[in-house]
Every structure is written in C-alpha cells, then in structure tokens.
Write a structure and sequence with these properties.
elongated, mainly alpha, about 70 residues, single chain
C-alpha cells in the first residue's frame, strides 16, 4: 500500500481534512495535495504527519526470507 493511501486512511479515521493537516504542517493544502497525488514524501515529512495525526511512524525493512525487521 502506498504511503499516500495510508495517510488518506488515517485522515478518515481521525476525521481530519487534507486542509486541516496541511495547516498543522505549516504548508498549503495545494502542496500537500500534490504530495499525496504523487506519493512523494520525505521521511522527515512522514514523521511530522504522524505527529500531527497522533500516530507512531516506524520505517522498517523486513527481510523476506526470515521476516527479520531492520
């Protein structure tokens, strides 16, 4: 699942609009909408989004053969 799709699901669960999230992040709603459309986020932005949505963000790689997370 794409990160943008996950963010959209969180927005629904938190009953928050893209405009409201953009305001929390200090950016325009157009800029955030573009990032969602292109699924183009830096890790630092994802951490800020998680904070704004009162969520934890964990970036991990999982080895397919062993299931080990790195």
């Amino acid at each position: 699942m794409a990160m943008a799709e996950k963010i959209k699901i969180l927005l629904v669960k938190k009953k928050m609009s893209v405009t409201a999230l953009a305001k929390c992040l200090g950016q325009s709603s157009q800029n955030l909408s573009n990032k969602l459309s292109n699924d183009d986020f830096r890790e630092s932005e994802l951490k800020k989004i998680a904070e704004a949505l009162n969520c934890d963000y964990d970036a991990t790689f999982t080895l397919r053969d062993s299931g080990e997370k790195v």
